[in-house]
Amino acid sequence: MAHFTKPDEGSWTEHFKIGTEPISYEDSVSPEFYELERDAIFRRTWLNVGRVEQLPRKGSYFTKELDAARTSIVVVRGNDGEVRAFHNVCRHRGNKLVWNDYPREETSGFCRQFTCKYHAWRYSLEGELTFVQQEGEFFDLDKSDYGLVGVRAEVWEGFIFVNLDPENTTPLREYLGEFGKGIEGYPFDKLTQVHKYRAEIGSNWKLFIDAFAEFYHAPILHGGQYEPEERAKIQKYGYQALAYDVDGPHSLVSSWGGIAPPQEPKMVKPIERALRSGLFGPWDAPDIGLTTEQLPPAINPTRDPRWGMDSFVFFPNFMLLIWRPNWVLTYHYWPTSYNTHIFEGTAYFVPPKNAFERLQQELAVVSFKEYGLQDGNTLEATQTMLESGTVTDFPLCDQEILLRHLHNTAGQYVRDFQQRQAKPAAPSRS
């Protein structure tokens, strides 16, 4: 972790040498570019698909639709307790193996084996083909040759990641870099009260990451969420970031809690005063075994007492927000086309001890939902006008440094992929 405070001279953008010229959003309106992203990014990087709490015992499983990567996977805890992932396809005729009433919907549950709905081929939790209906009708069939196609899966701090690239040699922990190492030790396992949102958004996946990677828009777009006195102050001064950082493809913005901390009652709404909670979470932080000063080094890297939240973007589509009041948000952006994606927002809390604490958490989650709806609606308007082609170059301010980094990174992945594809094959030896 190298860049904790703003440089004495210049800007964050100049400090990281990312470039200050206007940018093009062609990467967000081009169907051809999206098709390249699918192979260059989503089939070759580590993707977070869930947490270990979704697999509480041997035989627990869930499926994940990865449209951008052109596949569906099933993630399962085996009889040996290990977490594994497989392409969700039967080896007989290519039917989707695990699904319920609707093949395109994700599902979860418990089983002792996987059975194909089409011809009843069966597979163990470790992916071995164990039973073939009327096996004698086949020609020299060796079941050991027809196990499920595995996907590399690794677990980091309870988060399950997969990598669909069979040639990938980069371990997950190495891929997550300094940010990942600097977060290790945060007690995610204590935050088991989970609330989830899912929405289909009519915009390119990167545009929603853009919205959550800067605070420049918040005083305007979200101004209606504040009391008039607070709104006037925020619109005048904006939100302040304590630090920005980039590490390879990943990025971080660390921020303080706003102009008025939630403890100032005149600045918040009556329901927030009554429940002592709001967008920033319950005001009374639960005990997670660590004080603010004891948090891992990547969290509140400046160790500023005004710190309120860190937002980590783990490329390509996993955002992890750690809040001072000891709760966590995750965002996932799953592309379904060049101008549509599925947004998933998940809030993690320490389980409430009483009804009041439950209401505090639910108010925080509902507040987040309202902000997310405002962002999603705006992004659909953005997408339509970007596609008009009326304007092709857009200036970004210093607070939008992480947007610039994200689009630069996606472009570089695509260019690297194209170069690899263009290389001639090595001559074969006769």
From TrEMBL:
UniProt-listed InterPro entries: Rieske_2Fe-2S, Rieske_2Fe-2S_sf, Ring_hydroxy_dOase_asu_C_dom, Rng_hydr_dOase-A
GO molecular function: dioxygenase activity
Gene3D superfamilies in UniProt: Naphthalene 1,2-dioxygenase Alpha Subunit, Chain A, domain 1 (3.90.380.10), Rieske [2Fe-2S] iron-sulphur domain (2.102.10.10)
Cofactor(s), by name: Fe cation
Record PROSITE patterns: RIESKE
Superkingdom assignment: Bacteria
Domain Rieske: 46-162
The protein, known as: Aromatic ring-hydroxylating dioxygenase subunit alpha
Species of origin: Prauserella endophytica
Lineage of producing organism: Bacteria, Bacillati, Actinomycetota, Actinomycetes, Pseudonocardiales
